[in-house]
Predict the 3D structure of the following.
Amino acid sequence: MKVVFTGGGSGGHIYPLIAVAQSLNAIIDKENIANVRLYHFSDVPYDPDSFLEQHIEFVQIPAGKNRLYSSFQNFVDMFKVLHGILVALVKLYRIYPDVVFSKGGYASFPTLVAAHILRIPIIIHESDTVPGRVSRISGKWATRIAVAFPEAVSYFDKEKVACVGLPVRRELQRVIKEGAYEYLKLDPNIPVIVIFGGSQGASPINDVIISALPELVKDYQVIHQVGIKNIDEFKKITDSILLSNPNQRRYVALGFLNALATSMAAGVASVIVSRAGSQIFEIAGWSVPAIVIPITNSNGDHQRKNAYAYAQAGGCVVIEESNFTPHVLISEIHRIIDNPDISEKMRLSAKSFSKPDAADVIAREIINIALSHETS
């Protein structure tokens, strides 16, 4: 059995592939499926160690972006796409996999076109409420289509589509409370706010937190992921702001939270502040009330649409970036934490929204289609 994963460009396209690979390998081991080869077709290796851990071989396929605005680079990238399709045709023909699983994004397009030409079964997954262009095109060729939000179902053939949620890596599905306060050096008697400023640092969020800090630490403890690039400068600023503050130890700035620290932060959090990317599904799985600030200039406005879909489900409050001020943030945090009924309702709504078996469902479908293709 041979399976090709394709997708790239960002963690939102990559880490769901890893989650599905984890489930796929678990089924392969449990059911003793022999002679399995896994490949990742993309333009550049993104987090190669995670793919190696899942025994996935990287195969480089050139790719080009199709920007929504007028640019000479679009003309140049058109030739990159054509080159990528030719390379993918050759590489796919040599491997001839039983199924291709795509997480979308520009990096997956050449491989999807080549798979369609070679009549290799395709499974795609769409993370957003409104599918991107690659998903809308490849959805016409796909054997099966998985979507994260119910709102996306109507964009595809109802006979092929299912709402399964977003695949989340196993290590990020855990919520660890035991020992978490000690590990994170927190007081168990004071509520904890966890703020995800983004792995690279979401500047508008971080800027507001700086202004809100003196007020926040009066009543709460704050764990703040500020981004690896920002951590040194950020600590200088926050150390200065909290220099004479008696509650300065209540604030912890970190460049990056690894899987263990993330699971522990989820275990102690009363409220999480985050962007509206794929992390929504991780937060929902942890059943923690959230305040979500969507990026205003995301492609197709997908972050905003995703945020409001999750808010409609009851798991979060949305603050538009234009309204995101220290006063508004602090007021919303107080409203959620000071009202146990609101907090509990949000927790239950998040739990209902979460689909922790998404990766398992997709992995099982990959195996079913791959095995039927092998014998056909």
